[in-house]
């Protein structure tokens, strides 16, 4: 689809000339409607291409306006017209609310993947849910996180979506399964189920200057229309029960909560999604048997795993295929990405819940499991214990990861280390049984969004140096390597970073009244708040520097601003306590005259995609300090690398691959290695008290948590103290503290030699093209989806 620039400009001008009201929001809606109109009238369906469907409970695109205009090559034209009519383009763009239909990395990855699928010209479709409320808005009141509902759809509606009621689907829950026999076949019918209508809303996804238009479909749950004999009260309750399915996004990351509503959300997504795929396919294409050559389905973590039994149900119960035929189709179509090794994030659904909500699906899972266990016994005759490791259903719970592995032709982790641990530890029995299914696909990020859009200064500079080709082929960023000793280039790189720091500083000042030291090192830690991500380790180092400011002020040679942005899951008390501690320490440090001009701490509330777009280009230091083996990949690490920050990090997730590219000479690495962490976890020989007693710095810092010198929630601070010193320090903070401090000293020393620092930044940018999600998607396309 090409939109002619002149036609677009004319059409937009025509609408803006008499626009009423003359608000940025109104202008935004005008632009979006025009883009949608043009794209619908030009839509180029590619029915002969294999279609990929990416099922995810979360998509976190943030704002679409700039991405869409950039991809359609209309950004400059649009700005021009806006300015002609006295609109401030940035104001118009920023009036779009973030679509925050995801928690963090997993949902953001899904958004980058959609962008790359379109950019590479593949026919890719996202399948998600249209939550009425996205991830909560965070406020900090009295050092406590307060969660407010996120109304991402404004009164005038969401600019980019189109409701498609004519494509609605019925999803059925509950009821009882009735069996009957026809000829030689058992058939299954659901009696008296609860019926819920799934209405699709489509959001167009544009490829980068290549005419490809894909889509993200988000489903909204609605009740069936009232019948004439239903009472008002009964109908109100039915309606409520239906609509609650897509009311809220579960605001948790890396933690699984076995709530019935979550199960209903998952089934709702997969049932609506796969039914609609089949309807569409059978209208336009060939036979059921050909599905695997025409369709690929990727499940983003185990959340959409029920697609496996639901797909079986449709093929066997509704399309009369034999079990074997159906299984072969499902298995050749579905593949599964694992995104975490954390035990608490591995989904296990109680049998009773699944039986009650999805009785027919439960029978199918049992049958899949029966055949699978028979196969295991037949092949390996493994002992019972290992069959217990391999069975989908044990002790009245259904292991979703096992179901996903058994029903998928390919299983991948999201960074090399993660995929290795997945194969050799977490899913070991399965990788022995199905070795050919396991693979790795290291994550990536859309360089269009995170460099072209977020950092126009750097983008233009790079283009002036090495031409345009890197935009389509980001690996060409390595062409920058020839400038690593060019003083003029390094000066300009530094100047650009400085301007991006100023841009952020102005925003922060406008929003919070805090004046950031613009010439300090911007040390950035932005991600969900979680014990394993170790924001607390960062803070312990900050507190240590605070002590230094008092004891040995000369030791602080370069001013530093520590910037935190993080939301804690509302039910994750420990994470919320860490936020309290950060904000308490921040307010005291920022008011302490002794720290003035030396260190500063900011906790920026309501961290989200739009904020990230401002913070990331301004980062000097990227904090990627998870306990080794815990962060599956990380993607913030890649974004900051691409924007010329240096990383301080552990050998975890994709950090390892970053150091493979730039070597540890250009990366501040520290801390225990994954194997060491895993060994300690197995042998239980780590005692944080030993470290504590040997390290005076730690003692001094940690005593503040219990001696009342910090203002705020003393119970919270004491709890943090005990978690570290007395209760085992689950994430090895004390153990890694010493080497973290050392690495942070190296950061300071290096910053004192700006040339070397800048050179390292340029080297990092040069190698960051590998982390474009275009590379990741090209690998999925070739090796998993066979596009
Ligand atoms: C996550 C991991 O924690 C991240 O390391 C990873 O980058 C991301 C995308 O693969 O997936 N898993 C998860 O449950 N939330 C995540 O952000």
TrEMBL record:
The keyword Transferase applies. SUPFAM superfamilies: UDP-Glycosyltransferase/glycogen phosphorylase. Pfam families: Phosphorylase (PF00343). Keywords: Carbohydrate metabolism, Glycosyltransferase, Pyridoxal phosphate, Transferase. Its EC number is 2.4.1.1. Belongs to the glycogen phosphorylase family. This is Alpha-1,4 glucan phosphorylase. It comes from Alkalicoccobacillus gibsonii. The lineage of its organism: Bacteria, Bacillati, Bacillota, Bacilli, Bacillales.
